[in-house]
Every structure is written in C-alpha cells, then in structure tokens.
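[step 3/7] fold_predict: job queued, chain A
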Amino acid sequence: MRRSGDGDLTFYGIEKHHSLSFQASAPTVLTITISLPATQTAAHTNTISSNTITTTTTAAETATATPAKAITVLPLGDSITFGLGTADRNSYRQFLQQRLKDDAIGIDYIGSVRSGTLTDNENEGHSGAVIDQIRAFGERTIAASAQKPEVVTLLAGTNDVARKLDLANAPARVLSLVDRIHALLPHATVLVGSIPPLPFIDRQNVGVGHFNDVLQNLVQARIAANGNGTANKVGWVSMEEIGVEDLADGVHPNAGGYVKMGRAWASAMEDAIGKGLVIV
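[step 4/7] structure written:
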C-alpha cells in the first residue's frame, strides 16, 4: 500500500493489484460490467473506457466465499457519491465493495438513497448538495437508521467550490461535519476525501486546490492530535490521481475515474483495518 505521508490514514495510493489463477477449459466469452473477485478461478482482462468497465472471461468461474462479517458503511456526499457521470450510477461504491470482497471483507452500505445497479445500492448522495446540506442529510440518516455505520466515506465541498460559497470557511465546515458525525457515532471512522477537479468552473484549479490543501491540513492536524487513538477516528483520502481525463462532464468522474476513487477509498479502509480502527 503506497502512502505519500506518514501517520494515520493520510495519503492512499492506487497501486494494489490482484493476480488470478486459472484452469484450462473450453473457452467461453462473457462480457460483464464488474471486475472478477480474486477468489474466482478465471483468466480475465480488464479494460476501462470513458463509459464502461469491461471484463472478458475465458474460463469457468468458481464460487466466491462469502465474507464472515460485513462492515457497515455510510457513503455520504453529493452527486459524485450518488454516481452521476456513468449510466450505471454505481459511483465508487461498486469498486470499493469488490476490492474489499477480494480481501474477504464484506461491506453493507446504508443510506436513505438508492442509486446504481448494485444489489446493495444504498447511499447518502444528494445531487447539488453543499456541505451544510450534506450535514443535515447525514444527521437525519444516522438518527433514523437502526444500523449505525462503522465507517463514513465523506466527500463534500464540490458544490461549495463550484458556487464560490464562503470558500474561506468551506474546509472548516467539512471538519465541523466530521466532529458532528463523531458526536453521533463516537466509535465510527470517518474517511474524508479530497474533491476532484472542476475544469469548466475552476480552470486553473485554484479553488479546488486551495480547498483540498486547507482541508488536508485540518484533517491531518486532527489525526496528529488524536495520536492514533480509538476516539475521533479520522483519515485523509487523497483523490489526486483523478485528472480532467477521468471526468465524464467536467464535474463527475467517468467509469475510470470512479475506479480510481474506489481504489483510494479501499486503500484507506484496508489501512484502518490494519491499524485496528475498524474491526472485522
């Protein structure tokens, strides 16, 4: 797992690769829109275009073991969390779920919104929502849900930057939301993602870059203050690998962008699990 910084849950790279074993058999070709779990017996190749993720299978698949325990995850954010930018509306949630499944770790998504072709497609992604609205949606879902999330994947600020809504205080509003989540869920781990570029609105990446830099500093200061403890658990998840070429419409990631985003979230979750901040 690659990190660009020291300490707890700071930078997470996009570098993990899974190898698959295969057995010869009469070839059959099946094109599906998910990656095969590493526990399946098959030879396959993945290709990512701006609109689709295609896996071509040339061997018989075997059953995948069901994870013993599922981590309850609340995907919280705006239209990127919802999944705009691709026809399937699966966002990063599909790849994150599959990557953890490859590790024999289940994910149980919760939220008041359903979007995507995933069987488990619950989330709390609201198109056009700014930070304060995302806070209200999160508070409502946490209070109403019988299942309490163990992990919150938080991606907020895109619409604030796009609308130039009190930009000087926007990163602090995200950190305040993190504190509010911990007030409601003292033992939850909150993973805070940086926002992708907005080339049509912020052509020089000044607004997005400044927002991400300030928010990163705030989150890392909170991590340092926590001293790797089990209270107020928070992590910084860099989405810096997502470039303009990974956007479908200048705002929302395309299929390849969502894969990169899913890998970043997955690396952060794997790191949190390794540190004992998330129990499986």
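[step 5/7] annotate
The radius of gyration is 18 Å.
The longest strand covers residues 70-77.
exit 0
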